[in-house]
Structure formats: C-alpha cells, structure tokens
Amino acid sequence: MKLIKIQELLEAEAVTGKYDPEIEIEIGCSSDLMSEILAYGKPNSVLLTSLNNIQVINTANVADIGVVCFVMGKIPDDKMINLAKINNITLLTTILTTFESCGRLYKNGLKSCSYLD
Amino acid sequence: MDNTRTTSKIQELTYELKIKDVMIKNIKTVNSEMSICSLGDFLKKNRITGVPVVNEDELVGLISIEDFINCIKNQDKDAIINDKMTTNIETLYEDEPLVHAITKFDKSGFGRFPIISRKNKKLVGIITKSDIIRGILKKLETAYHDEEERRYRASHIFNDIVADEVFFKFQYDVEAKNFDKAGEAATGLKKTLYRLGLSPEIVRRAAISTYEAEINIVSYTDGGKITAYLEPHQIRIVITDIGPGIPDVEKAMKPGFSNAPGWIRELGFGAGMGLPNIKKFTDKMTLRSTVAKGTRLVIIIKLSDYRNGD
Q1: What's the ipTM?
Q2: Given this structure, which CATH class describes domain B2-136?
Q3: What residues make up the domain containing A37?
Q4: Which of A31, A85, B84, B198: CA 20 to 30 A from B265?
Q5: Which residue of B has its CA nearest to A50?
Q6: How far is A8 from chain B (nearest CA, A)?
Q7: What is the pLDDT of residues A51-82, one digit of tens each?
Q8: What are the sequence ranges of the domains in chain B?
C-alpha cells in the first residue's frame, strides 16, 4: 500500500513534513508496548501507536520501521520529530482511535505482521 | 596517536572495500592439458607467478611457479598441468569485504585466491596480497603515495589487522534512569555497523538486542556500559552494569516476567519481553548476575549470512 493511501485512509497529517508518497508499505503493526514491536515488527511497515515518547522513534529506528502513526490526535514533540527526520522516519498523526485506524488499513488490504514467524 | 588513527582508517577500508574493487579482473588462465614446459614460458611472458587452471569455463585448479620449479628439480619435464596443479582450491566471492580475503590469506598461507561470482560461480578475477595493498593505498588517496607504500608494507598492514582478531570496538556509557538518552547506544551502534557494510538483517538484530539491553540498564540498574566488538565472524556485545543484580536469572528470562515499576510501563517497556527478545535476535546469550554487584550479559550475533560456506 502506498504511503499516500495510508495517510488518506487515516485522515492523517504528516508531522515530519513532505515525504515520498509512492513509498510502498507492506505490513502494519500496532502496540503501545515497544518490546512487542521489537519482537515481531517487520522492516518496511507502518506502526500505529498511542504511546508518545522518544522511545517510539528509537524503536522504529532500530527495527527498520519507516512510518509511525500516532493515534487519537497525539502529536510528537520537536525532539521526536527531529530524531525521526534524521533517521528518515515519517511520522503521521490521526484523530482516529487505534481500533479504527487498524480496521481501516486492514479492510483496505494492508497485511498484519504475524508474531509467529 | 597518529599511528592508531591510520590503522583504524585502514581497518575501516578493509570493510568498506569489496574484493571486486581491488582484484585483478583481466586474468590469464591456462588449460589443464598444457605442458609444464609451456607453463614456464607462459608465466615468464605474462610476468606472473601463478595462474588459475580453467577447462571450458570451469575453474579446476591453480598452478604456481613453485609447482613449475619442483617439476624442473625433479626432471619431470613431460608432465602436464593436470598432474601438478592444486585442485583443493579455496575461493572468495567478489562481493565479500576485503577483510575476508585478508583473514583467509593469514590463515591459509596461500599466495592467491581465485574470485568467483556469487551468481554463477564463474571465475571473475584473482587476488594477491599486493592487490590488497594497492587497493587500500589507492583508496587512501594520499599525496605521498610512494612514501605510504614504503611505510605500510604488506607485513605491517597484515599484522595490524589480524593481530588480535578484533577489528573494531565501540563503547557506550549508559546512564541510569535517563530515559531521554536511552537508545543512543543502540542507534549509534546501528549507524556504525551500517557504515561498515554489514547486512541490514545483521545490523537490525544487533540494534534491537542492544536496544533492549540498554533499556534494561536504564530501567533497572545504577548505570552500566555497552561494549561491542566486531570480530571476523561475529559481533560480540558485552553489557555490564554496576548493580543491583538479578536475584533469580531463570525467572527473569521467562517471557512475561517483570517487576518493572509503573514509570517504565508508561514508557512502553517493562512487559517482561526484554531478555526473551534479546535471546530471539541473537545466536548466543550468556547472563551472569550477582546481587549487590551487578550483571554481565554477553550476546553474540554470527555474521554467517555474510560469509558463505562458513
């Protein structure tokens, strides 16, 4: 799924500014527990979370996750935005809940990452 | 001081440069049916001391001037290459980093290695120690090329690099309870390993496991240290802290076990997944802990996908 499509489906705003809308995202994952994301998150995926602190950016960075969307209108602070920009991570924010965000992406064909592989 | 800096620059280059960057591509080959006498003329004419033996595109052996001299000594003039060549040959892939060739030269004592393509296993080049020196010097791009060549003679470079089997060492101090800084060691290590050309999957595993260990130091200890060693076949990461130690290591290793205080959980950790995650992403993990003294965690990530056949 193209990044622009994800942004549209989630009615999200890109807080890290301009990005390449053509970036292909293959997988979605969601958790507020960063260890879960580290355990089964996949490279080239979008992370949906309502956790809003610097460790979300570090988690995305070490796990090669290129896009993070904060749900329920949470807006990352400047330090997080800067760190994301340096590491080429796109940050989105949506007013939707975690449940609805995941539902919209899943319904439109974005795959989930299995924690079994 | 100056010497240390130069050495590490050379070490860096041995990772950055690939074998194909320095190997000789336009290679001469001989057929195994060629007579030893003609081989002598061939080596002389081409001013080389050894040559790969290739039959119908397939690498079958190596023959060197030493084999030729032995034949003459034994008055074995009618022999053909097939009788005298080395068939037990070791090869390297063109996309491997230079350091693999250096290690192989050091361990085997051979003078040259044929280089093959990973795709079709066909011979694409040959490498000798002097090709490595030339490649590194070229890359150093110093104005005093000739002087450098004298200063870093083959033996010198090889001693520096292979001497203690550790190519790089990175060290990070990790502060207790400082969540703003947590992650700096892991992300710093990740950047460095990428820059050295390690595969993304290896880098990811090293980064994730270091990150979990770093979060543990910040969350549960009075501070600690992360030291990563890049060795020829593995990354070894040693994580130590100054206490308070883990009373029951077996229990701590159980997925889901946690005694994390609320503030750690609020930050997205403390679910009892840290140590199991580290285990998941590493090839070996050793955890030793003494209450009131501290904990020492050693993790190993093998570079196996990087070195085919190992």
Answers
A1: 0.93
A2: alpha beta
A3: 3-111
A4: A85
A5: B268
A6: 27
A7: 999 999 999 999 999 999 999 999 999 999 99
A8: 2-136, 168-306
